[in-house]
Amino acid sequence: MNAIDRSLELLTLKQVFDDGRRSFAIPDFQRGYSWEEDQRADLLRDIEYGMSGDYNHYGGTLVAVKNHSIQDFDHYEIVDGQQRLTSLIILLSCIAHTNGRIDFATKEDLRRCFIEEGSDLGSTRRKFQLSDEQDSLFWQMVNEPDSLVTIKNKGHQNIVEAFGQFKNWIQEPKNETSIYEVYKYVTNCLGFILYAPEDTKEIGIMFEVINNRGKPLSELEKVKNYLMYFSEKNEIRDLKTAVNDKWPRILEHLNSCNHTSNDAENGFLRNCWIVFWDTNKSKSQHVYDNLKAQFPTTDETNWKPLYRFVAFLEESARSYRMLYTRENVTNIEELECLRRLGNQPVLASVLPLILAIFSRETDEQTRVALLKLVEKLNFRFYGTGIASRSDSGQGELFRLAHDYYADRMEDGRSFDAFSLESMLREFVNRNANDIKLVKNLTLDKDESGNYYSWSWLKYFLASYEGTLKKNKQRDEKLEELLARQDAQNPNDFYQIEHIWAVKDYEKFDDSENPDINKRRLGNFILLRALPNKRISNNPPEVKVESYLTNYSDVPETLMIRELKGLFDKAQEEIERNRTNKTWKYWYEVYSRFLDLHEEKYVNFALERWQVDGISHPVKGVALNSLSGRNEIYELTD
Question: 400 CB contacts (<8 Å, ≥6 apart)?
Answer without folding.
Answer: 353, 356, 420, 423, 424
